[in-house]
Design brief:
Elements: H1 2-5, H2 11-27, H3 31-47, H4 51-64, H5 68-84, H6 88-91, H7 93-107, H8 111-126, H9 131-147, H10 151-167
Length: 173
C-alpha cells in the first residue's frame, strides 16, 4: 500500500521505502530480496544526494551481503561515503561501521584484523562524546583480546568497564 501511495516526486520517501523494505526482508532472513531492495535504496539515495540514506543503504548491504567479500566491499563504500559527507551526523556513522566490520572479521576468526579495526573504532569513538559507544568499543577490544588468548589484557579492560558503567548509572551483563 505504501508503494501504491508514493508519487514520482517523493524521492526521499521512495529511497526510505526501499531501505525499510530491505530491512524487513533482512529481518526475515531473505538476504537476496533484502540486497535487491538495498541496492534500489542506494540508487534512489544517490539520485537525491541524500548522504544519510546513501551510507545507511551501503551499511545495510554490508549486513545483508551473503558473502564476506560483499560485506567488505559495502563496508568500504559506506566508510568512504561517511568520511566525505558534509553532515557531521553522517560522518559519525564511521564508528558504527568500523564496529560492524570488526565484528564481521571477528566472526571469521580473523582476530588480529578485527583488533586493528576495533582499535580504530575506539579511537574514532573517543573523538565523540557518546560514553556508551566508547564503552562498547572498549568491550569489543577486550573481547578480541580474549579471543587472542590475551586474557590478562582483556580482564583489565573489562574490570574498568564495570566502573565506567557504574559511573554513568547503568549496568550491562
Amino acid at each position: 500500500e505504501v508503494n501504491k501511495s508514493l508519487k514520482e516526486n517523493q524521492k526521499t520517501a521512495i529511497a526510505r521505502y526501499y531501505i525499510e523494505r530491505g530491512r524487513v526482508y533482512n529481518s526475515d532472513n531473505k538476504r537476496n530480496e533484502a540486497v535487491q531492495e538495498f541496492l534500489k535504496a542506494l540508487e534512489a539515495s544517490k539520485v537525491i544526494k541524500h548522504e544519510h540514506l546513501i551510507v545507511d543503504s551501503a551499511h545495510m548491504l554490508a549486513i545483508a551481503g551473503p558473502k564476506f567479500k560483499d560485506q567488505k566491499k559495502w563496508t568500504e563504500i559506506a566508510l568512504e561515503e561517511a568520511k566525505k559527507a558534509k553532515d557531521s551526523k553522517v560522518q559519525d556513522w564511521r564508528g558504527r561501521l568500523l564496529n560492524n566490520w570488526g565484528s564481521s572479521l571477528f566472526e571469521q576468526k580473523q582476530y588480529k584484523e578485527a583488533m586493528k579495526i576495533f582499535k580504530d573504532a575506539l579511537e574514532f569513538r573517543k573523538t565523540k562524546s557518546n560514553t556508551e559507544a566508547i564503552i562498547i568499543a572498549k568491550w569489543s577490544v577486550a573481547r578480541t583480546h580474549r579471543a587472542l588468548n590475551e586474557v590478562d589484557k582483556a580482564l583489565v579492560i573489562q574490570l574498568s568497564l564495570i566502573k565506567e558503567w557504574d559511573k554513568i548509572g547503568k549496568k550491562d551483563g
